[in-house]
Amino acid sequence: MIFLDHNAGAPPHPRVRERLRSLLGGEEWANPSSPHRAGRAAKELVEEARESVALSVGTSTAQMTFTSGATEANAAAIRHWAMDAGDRRTIVSTPVEHPSVMEPLRRMELEGWRLLWAPVDRHGSVPADWIGSALDGDVAFAVCMSANNETGALLPWRKWAAECAKREIPLHVDATQSWGREDVPVGVVRGSVAWSGHKVGSLTGVGALWLSETKGFVGLAQGGSQERGRRAGTESVLAIASLGEVARVAASGASRREWSEWIEILWEQVADRPGVSRTVAAVDSLPNTLHLGLPSRAETAVMRLDLEGVAVSAGSACASGSMRPSPVLLAMGWNETEAARGLRISVGHAVDESGVRKAAAILREVLTK
Ligand code: PLP
Q: Residue 270 — φ and ψ, nearest 5°?
């Protein structure tokens, strides 16, 4: 299979496979809270991973909490900032957030919070200056993803970070799709940043939450004092080790230019196909993502490509199981028919240039017939 669906979740990176193979024969399966040798080995592994994950975003290990992924990290951060809100009742966010942000926020809206949504255009772009006018004295916190999982569009989270910090308003950034694909200098944020590792080749079910100020933070589940009391529950040691392993790859940024070249190879093959449009220009996009508007339903193209051995997706992995038109594209002003015609292609470590060229030719043929 030629795998062009990294934004949904990538296969384990070769470094992860190699590391896990060697770890499975060792003693690191133990509970890291245990005082014996096996427990200490597991603890060491967790702390070694914390160091490389912290390094990948330019921060200290003390601010990093491991979680079961970005869904948990997003939920924990949103709850934390809500509990810290005092009398303020407004939350500022964007209407293209991942469901793990959108669902908690929608629920809060039903509970009486006021939600202020940023405008988004047909290309997934949020005007950078808008946030300045949105932050008034009632804003409790803001939430902005760094890049959209479906379209690859980059969002102005750095500008949000600067404007929020000026007013001492916490900002939560969902950086899941950016980690390993662009620099994520978390230190510019006064608030929190979440991500997971499986988009870049860790095991699934592991991620991280960075907090600029960890004091007073309480995780979603209470219990043991793991993760400095911020996340109760025995650590998933091998999954955390896999996150540490891909953190080294993420920090190097070595493949980013290559990925953007592959995206252009794919686009060049289909740019002249009737009714095919590119949703996000290269300069406004993650280097690994190409989102297309097609002349007919994307599901059909996905199935035909699958038969030819090419894996892509229509909508995000969460939305595509449901056969509903993508809520992200609807939020960008696409109508229902158009929103059912969005195709996402995302490259990464599990494909190489010859695979991309082969897939580009197959894609051209599918979009021709
Ligand atoms: N946020 C974004 C932008 C995502 O793309 C995803 C995964 O699809 C998540 C959050 C949820 O991550 P996880 O699957 O690690 O819970």
A: -120, -5
Spatial CB neighbours of 173, under 8 Å, sequence gap ≥ 6: 143, 144, 145, 146, 157, 160, 161, 186, 189, 191, 192, 193, 194
Please give the structure tokens belonging to residue 209.
Answer: 């939450």
Nearest CA to ligand 1 atom 5: 149
For residue 316, the model assigns a pLDDT of: 55
196 CB under 6 A from ligand 1? yes
pLDDT digits (tens, 9 = 90+) for 108-136: 999 999 999 999 999 999 999 999 999 99
198 Cα to the center of ligand 1, angstroms: 9
Mean pLDDT of the chain: 95
What is the residue with the minimal CA distance to atom 16 of ligand 1?
Answer: 71
Give the residue among 119, 165, 123 at the shortest CA–CA distance from 141.
165
Question: For residue 131, what is the enclosing H or E element?
Answer: helix 130-134
What percent of the chain lies above the pLDDT cut of 90?
93
Q: What is the DSSP string of 298-347?
A: HHHHHHHHHHTTEE-BSS-HHHHTTTPPPHHHHHTT--HHHHTTEEEEE-
How far does the centroid of ligand 1 lie from the alpha carbon of residue 273, in Å? 32
Ligand 1 atom nearest to 97, measured from its CA: 3
Find tokens 């004091």 and name the residue.
215
pLDDT at 320 over 70: no
Could you identify the residue written with the tokens 């017939």? 369
Tens digit of each residue's pLDDT (9 = 90 or more) over 235-259 = 999 999 999 999 999 988 889 999 9
Question: Residue 215 corresponds to which tokens in the numbers above?
Answer: 């004091």
Phi, psi for 167 (deg, rounded to 5):
-100, 5
